[in-house]
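cron nightly-structures :: item 1 of 1
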Amino acid sequence: MNARINPFRGTGIALVTPFTLDNEVDYPALKRLVNHCIEGGVEFLVALGTTAETATLSTQERIRTVAAILEASEGRVPLVQGVGGNDSAKVAEELRSGLAMGVQGVLSVSPYYNKPSQEGIYRHFCHLASYTDLPIILYNVPGRTSSNMLASTTLRIAESVPHAVAIKEASGNLEQVMDLIADAPDGFDVLSGDDNLTLPMIACGAQGVISVSGQAFPKTFSQMVRDAINGNLKESRLGHYAMLRFTQQLFQEGNPGGIKSALSHLGIIENSLRLPLWPISEGLESELAFSVRKLQQHEL
């Protein structure tokens, strides 16, 4: 058996789905965003995650969005596609039907709403794994799923599924992160799912991040991650603290309202979301605009 290798290290970007002011998917803006991220130095892209408002996209919009990202990226960086849900059979069928040619990995969230037991979570991922040969990134985000995938469950999945290559860990629990890193099998990595915990997680042994804030300032964020992975902590702290307050603001009234506001100030997309999401308040909008200008100066 070939040794497991995680091809998704460094900075991955959880792309938003830009909408026009008429609430249609804005494919030209999506192309601008993809180029902005790649030219900023990120290592891979993630389509159709939570940040993409995937729950509000039709099947045809999802297909076309992935195709548009692949076309814009032109193979310069790998693309991971979000494929997850709380109906194991339905998610398996989506994987069985096949993903777009060019997609190189799958990000799959622990089932939400149902609140399965740890045994249920384990069997869910083992079931999905039998329907795809692509590398799988598990995703633990208790704040959205209402259940925490314990380190013991993640490690059990990693041992049972040879093509499970990483976990996007967004529990916010650094002890859980350390338990994962300490006992992970060879080739199975931890990726940060919390932008502002990326530096401490890498210091503990994580190998990257799937970031929201990095798509606004990919140059600063991806360099911070590279510096951290290479052990240049002094340089990495400069990027971390340059992004800290901005990232706090992004999530203050929920994601992706904050990042869409920031990207609109950068002239990349319109500040448009689909219900039930709503744009951030005027006060936070003003604070974010100031932070964007400050970070633009930092990147000069």
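cron nightly-structures :: done
The longest helix spans residues 233-250.
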